[in-house]
Amino acid sequence: MKLGNTIVSVEVPRFPLVRLTYADGFSATLDFSEKFAWGEATRPLSDPAFFATAHVGSGGSSLEWICPDGEEIDFCADALRFEAEALADRPAAE
Fold first, then answer.
1. What pLDDT, on a 0 to 100 scale, did the predictor assign at position 88?
2. What average pLDDT does the structure give for the chain?
3. What residues does each domain of the chain span?
4. Residue 83: φ, ψ to 5°
5. What does residue 92 show for φ and ψ, rounded to 5 degrees?
6. Which residues contact 8 (CB under 8 A, 6 or more apart)?
7. CATH T-level assignment (fold) for domain 7-89
8. Which of 29, 76, 90, 13 is nearest to 21 (CA)?
9. What is the pTM assigned to this prediction?
10. Exposed, middle or buried by CB within 10 Å (0-12, 13-18, 19+), for 54?
């Protein structure tokens, strides 16, 4: 995988899914439900209304949410791309 991926579009088709589209046309839908349990930092994401505010952050280098107190929750575009590609490469369950 190359580094320096840029997210150009973020959609929340339904809670807790995020659909990302990258500058090179690659798109993937990721389930964030497991990330809710990572601790205090990601706990706000478990609120569906807040989760729906997902947007492109830092010039496309991240996926981001802004908390009411101004704190950011963000995930690196490269890390999310790596995760999405790994999921796409998994054999289908039989």
1. 79
2. 92
3. 7-89
4. -60, -45
5. -65, 145
6. 21, 22, 23, 56, 60
7. NE0471 N-terminal domain-like (3.30.2020)
8. 29
9. 0.89
10. buried
